[in-house]
Amino acid sequence: MRTVYYTDRLILRVLKGRDAKLVCDYYQRNEAFLREWEPQRDADFFTRRGQRRDLAAEYRMIRREQMLKLWLFKREDPERVIGMISFTNLLYGDFCSCFLGYKLDQAEINRGYMTEALEYGIELMFRQYGLHRIEANIMPHNVRSLRVVEKLGFKQEGLARRYLKINGQWRDHIHMTLLNQQMEA
Ligand SMILES: CC(C)(COP(=O)(O)OP(=O)(O)OC[C@H]1O[C@@H](n2cnc3c(N)ncnc32)[C@H](O)[C@@H]1OP(=O)(O)O)[C@@H](O)C(=O)NCCC(=O)NCCS
């Protein structure tokens, strides 16, 4: 299984349990920045033990091609995680669909890093995993995130009411999707 990919400015890596410190450092640095956009986390989430457990479980799912999570590093700084992209709930057969997730380090936003990482990840999902549809659900006031998927060609399909519990509250999300039209030919 391939675990490292490269874009112009980034390294995209599958991480294992033994890499927990890198992820733990990222979440500790960004706890306040991410709070508004994510589910509530318990204290264990910010520990090496918690991240080691999560990374090990995810690695097993990645090997079975049930998900793909790639952690982002700048090429010139390969020891510091600056974000993550994830493709989860991969379903095949006549559905060929998945959910998209992503987050960056607050210190690195607005430099096009997320768009660069997702362009690459989406190509992997469409060409290598053979998916037809990628679904992103975004709160209406998350303008940075909406802009990212718009740049990548996602289209709005509607509003999912009280779709996800974010920071302790069930919040409406805009349902955005990208289709692999080459599969329809
Ligand atoms: C969403 C997120 C991943 C974006 O990462 P990023 O690397 O900054 O994204 P990019 O630089 O590729 O693109 C950001 C775009 O938003 C635009 N933007 C930034 N602030 C904005 C604002 N207040 N209003 C409108 N557009 C804004 C930028 O100008 C840029 O668009 P452009 O290229 O047309 O100029 C990052 O902000 C983040 O981690 N947020 C917290 C977690 C999160 O929201 N995750 C997604 C949950 S759905």
**CATH evolutionary superfamily:** Gcn5-related N-acetyltransferase (GNAT)
Q: What profile does the largest beta sheet have?
A: 8 strands, mixed
Total count of strands: 8
Percent helix range: 25-40%
Main CATH class: Alpha Beta
- Parts with pLDDT < 50 across at least 5 consecutive residues: none
- Order of SSEs, N→C? EEHHHEEEHEHEE
> What is the domain total for the residues?
1
**Which kinds of small molecule does this entry bind, naming each only once?**
coenzyme A
Q: What percentage of amino acids are in beta strands?
A: 35-45%
Structural class: alpha+beta
Q: Evaluate the radius of gyration.
A: 16 Å
CATH architecture: 3-Layer(aba) Sandwich
Write the CATH fold name.
Aminopeptidase
- Cα distance spanning the termini: 29 Å
Features:
185 residues; alpha+beta; Aminopeptidase; eight-stranded mixed beta sheet; 5 helices; 36% strand; globular; binds coenzyme A
